[in-house]
Amino acid sequence: MQDTILDIKSLDMDARGVGHLANEDGSPGKVIFVEGALPGEKVSFHTFKKKKNWEAARMTVLHKPSSMRVEPKCPHFDNCGGCSMQHLEPSAQVAMKQRVLEDNLWHIGKVKPGNVMRPMYGPTWGYRYRARLSVRHVAKKDTVLVGFHEKRSAFVADMSDCKILPPHVAAMLLPLRALVGALSIFDQMPQIEIAVGEETTAMVLRIMAPLTGADETVLKSFADQWNIQWWLQTKGPETAAPFYPLGKELYYTLPEFGVKMPFKPVDFTQVNHHINRVLVGKALNLLEVQPSDRVADLFCGLGNFTLPLATQAREVVGIEGSTTLTERALSNARANGLSEKTSFSTRNLFEVTAEDLVELGKFDRMLIDPPRDGAMALVQALAALRLSHPEMLPKRIVYVSCSPSTLARDAGILTHEAGYQLSKAGVVNMFPHTSHVESMAVFDLV
Ligand SMILES: C[S@@+](CC[C@H](N)C(=O)[O-])C[C@H]1O[C@@H](n2cnc3c(N)ncnc32)[C@H](O)[C@@H]1O
Ligand code: SF4
């Protein structure tokens, strides 16, 4: 039987090429999502999932390549689920993310930005300073795997190198396998969480059984050899504690603001400190904080934006759902001599109301950096505030988002119900080669 050759027209959110089979009358028919295919290409494919209106497939033959196609840098790209776009030229990846953002804003929020900002760039490789690696003992092969999951699978990829981890961490992937294999609890340690600081790299070993004295010796000699700090985690993240060597401090800096941020390896921190500097600098630049301003930093984490904001504003109020993080933010503010201008509180912002906002007092400007779920309750509270206390609305909001669809939903509420206009929006290339889209939007009160 002759192969069907498909024209790929676009890329979906998971970086799969999208094409349509032709109906008998020539009109576009069933949608085919083809892994590995790019817009403008002609491909043959093998379907591995068939539904009534669509099929998921893998590219088998590339008949006509796109001019944007590049050779993936990583030898594990076909198998490892950590990256989905290494076959697409990096600037085309960003252009595609920009389109995803604009499409979402329009289709979900029914809003167009007044100005599309130039993408914000960081390093393309070696950028992932935080990672959770899975550990599996494969009894059949009597081997240990340490790595990300395979594409579409719960299996751990057999990776000996990684181009998005910092080189010194990638170099430890094979030694880590040998290390785990040498421990008595090799089959009771499901993950290793990595956090890279400016002076030290921490590795948090999740252990389900106690270590023996011999295990401890093996871990200590690995830490000495690779210059890392071990942490042990026996249950939830709050049980993570430094093990060896003690006395090392994990931190990153924001030199433009003279700020140093100590953190724990299980705390939320932005994935890369270089692009984080770009992100914080740009957000503050867009907020245009004045020395007399009172500013809110909502979903403030450990104070990543709060402390730089405090170097410019009269007062900054950081609000965050995790007590561990607000406590960290408080101690970071003290350590940076900014505690007089900052205050922090723990609050569930998914339930915030207009009354809560009235109680918090007027803010001149607001920074919002929510998790993937977005900030629906908050923007609804702002919409309600417009009706009850319009004088209390902040005149400018900068919204940092890791999900274009929830940003678009919230942008719709802010523009259609709360009296704001979407002045600017753009993408931040925070996660090159993956389909994650990080973006930033500026709303002005009209
Ligand atoms: C994308 S992070 C941003 C953190 C911080 N702005 C930064 O740059 O490091 C989102 C933050 O929202 C917090 N969070 C998640 N759900 C929350 C909720 N329901 N209420 C308040 N904060 C929440 C998380 O703990 C996390 O610190
Ligand atoms: S996550 Fe690392 S190992 Fe996996 S494909 Fe990306 S660069 Fe390669």
Automatic annotation (TrEMBL):
Gene: rlmD
Active-site residues, record numbering mapped to chain: 402
Protein role: Catalyzes the formation of 5-methyl-uridine at position 1939 (m5U1939) in 23S rRNA.
InterPro entries linked to this entry: 23S_rRNA_MeTrfase_RlmD (IPR001566), MeTrfase_TrmA_CS (IPR030391), NA-bd_OB-fold (IPR012340), SAM-dependent_MTases_sf (IPR029063), TRAM_dom (IPR002792), U5_MeTrfase_fam (IPR010280)
Transmembrane annotation, as ranges: none
Binding site for [4Fe-4S] cluster: 74, 80, 83, 162
Catalytic activities: uridine(1939) in 23S rRNA + S-adenosyl-L-methionine = 5-methyluridine(1939) in 23S rRNA + S-adenosyl-L-homocysteine + H(+)
Every TRAM domain range: 1-61
Name used for this protein in its record: 23S rRNA (uracil(1939)-C(5))-methyltransferase RlmD
The keyword S-adenosyl-L-methionine is assigned to this record: yes
HAMAP family linked: 23SrRNA_methyltr_RlmD (MF_01010)
Keyword Protein biosynthesis: no
Similarity field: Belongs to the class I-like SAM-binding methyltransferase superfamily. RNA M5U methyltransferase family. RlmD subfamily.
Record-listed E.C. numbers: 2.1.1.190
Tree of life domain: Bacteria
Binding site for S-adenosyl-L-methionine: 270, 299, 304, 320, 348, 369
Keywords, comma-separated and alphabetical: 4Fe-4S, Iron, Iron-sulfur, Metal-binding, Methyltransferase, rRNA processing, S-adenosyl-L-methionine, Transferase
Gene Ontology MF terms in the entry: 4 iron, 4 sulfur cluster binding; iron ion binding; RNA binding; rRNA (uridine-C5-)-methyltransferase activity
